[in-house]
Amino acid sequence: MDRPLRPGRRPLVAGNWKMHGLRKELVEVEKICAEAAAGGADGAEIVLCLPATLLGAAAPICAGAGVGLGGQHCHNEPSGPFTGDISAEMLKDAGASYVILGHSERRTGHHEGDESVRDKANGAFRAGLRAIVCVGETRAEREAGDALPVVASQLAGSIPITSTPESLVIAYEPVWAIGTGLTPTLSDIAGMHRFIRERIDAHLPGMGHGMRILYGGSVKPGNAAELMGVSNVDGALVGGASLSARDFMGIAGVYRHFCDAGPA
Ligand code: PGA
Predict the structure, then answer these.
(1) For residue 27, which of 241, 238, 245 has the smallest C-alpha distance?
(2) What's the pLDDT at 6?
(3) Which domains does the chain have, with CATH numbers?
(4) From ligand 1's centre to the CA of 211, what distance in Å?
């Protein structure tokens, strides 16, 4: 296992609040920002992917603390007759710099396929947002020995050909690990992240080394150090634990300790 501060890839810890959060929960955003501004995740980039309804109110809180904001999905078009949808331009206008795309809860609950994820990623790039594109196998696919081909096919279908390490982040999130308290073995994570980096290089020659690949699925303060220490893991996409400033900064804080330990 090597240390997670790798030249050219700044670690990223992104919180995914999903459909949680009223204005009163902005107090957690304030706490995260206060801790981040005080160096709580030194060396790592912190992004909060909040419900779209909170982005505008969170923007002035996050601005001074160096904490980024993100949306959780977007339409591929910039505007139009799409009732209930939100465009990448709207997210950007509300203060976002990132957007999560292709999360398994969108792939399953909203029937978003790879092609649709790719179109939305192109929309994000057009608006100047960075896309965090999620991939990951189900329990049945893993048990059938199909985890690698499933992820390879999601990558091939979901990643725009114009992607760069500046515009795209990949999040590997095994569906069976999301919200369950289960995580793959460290060696399974290492194998999958190495494989994803190779696949990125195959699709986007020369881009594999610089692309950040996050692990997501039941990341908690108690397992963050070992998960973030796995080779080719460049940070975390955090669901449940990102709703609490204490837990989220407990995860992001592993990078402060890695930094304190000196360069790898
Ligand atoms: P979890 O969710 O951390 O609650 O498992 C991760 C995600 O869905 O991004």
Answers:
(1) 245
(2) 58
(3) 12-25+75-241 (3.20.20.70)
(4) 21
